[in-house]
Specification:
The chain is an alpha+beta fold. Helix content is about 25%, strand content about 25%. The chain has a six-stranded mixed sheet with strand order 3-4-2-1-14-13. The protein starts with a strand and ends with a strand. It binds one DNA strand through helix 1.
DNA sequence: ATGTCTCAGGGACTGAGA
């Protein structure tokens, strides 16, 4: 089973690149973030013709998440269903009906802006809502994969310049504590587990020659529940996709398990 | 140089968000 996550930064601007990537890598399941499209305008036929079933949760202009699967998707949920008034489309889940079914979730965690903006407390509160949601659902779901753009660099090894970033948004103690809360709920972050000392990144700023200078951060992650984590055979970042014409500012992250 | 992108609105460019 091959699963992947990619912040695509606009499906309209990137569907050709995505189609080529899917043809080359053939993941069973893909989570997208920042589709920046309403559901009605999502170019689904392109991907259905490659054999994928789609579930999208979009909004106009910003944010938006999607699930692609070569196996049927059941019981799609959008948002956290907690009654909060939140118009931002950032979380979608579904059950992948493979031989051994599992729950999959695509998360686009808030960026947070700067420490003094109102986007920062929104980010922290959003994480708390996600943690409550995961806690409430985890026994019912069994095996699960949670993937996405978490907008948190969990440790200094995940940041090109920890001195400069320490205490800034994506690297504060409050954010890292919440990110670690996912692990406290029994999920394991696969890339770091497979590569304990690798300081690879998943995102590089378009500005200031971020990618050529490798000034990036590892903020896109794949978490799985215990049983799946024990069956993982590989986890890697596809840096190639950050190259060439009109890349996203994020590279895909891929995991394989038996 | 806040040095690059995407998208929306409105029909060339500006603003927002990342």
């Amino acid at each position: 089973m091959k699963v992947a996550t990619w912040n695509i930064n606009g499906i309209k601007a990137r569907h050709d690149r995505l189609r080529a990537w899917l043809s080359a890598h053939e993941p069973d399941v893909l989570c997208l973030q920042e589709i920046k499209s309403i559901d009605e305008a999502f170019p689904g036929e392109v991907f259905e013709s490659l054999g994928y079933r789609l579930a999208t949760y979009g909004q106009k202009g910003y944010n938006g998440v999607a699930l692609f699967s070569r196996h049927p998707l059941e019981d799609v949920t959008r948002g956290f269903e907690d009654g909060e008034d939140d118009e931002q489309a950032r979380f979608i889940g579904a059950t992948v009906m493979a031989d051994r079914p599992f729950r999959v979730m695509s998360a686009y965690c808030p960026n947070g802006g700067s420490l003094d903006s109102d986007k920062y407390p929104y980010k922290l509160a959003w994480y708390d809502r996600m943690l409550r949601f995961l806690d409430k659902k985890r026994t019912a779901w069994g095996d699960a994969v949670l993937m996405g753009d978490f907008n948190v660099a969990p440790a200094d090894i995940d940041v090109h310049d920890p001195e400069a970033w320490c205490g800034q948004v994506s690297c504060t103690a409050a954010e890292r504590q919440r990110w670690e809360g996912i692990g406290a709920l029994g999920m394991r972050e696969i890339f770091r587990e497979m590569h304990p000392d690798d300081s690879s990144y998943t995102w590089w700023d378009y500005r200031q020659l971020g990618f050529p200078k490798n000034k990036g951060m590892r903020i896109d992650h794949i978490f799985t529940t215990q049983n799946l984590a024990d069956r993982v055979t590989a986890c890697y970042i596809d840096r190639q996709e950050r190259k060439g014409k009109k890349p996203s500012d994020h590279a895909p992250v891929v995991a394989e398990f038996d």
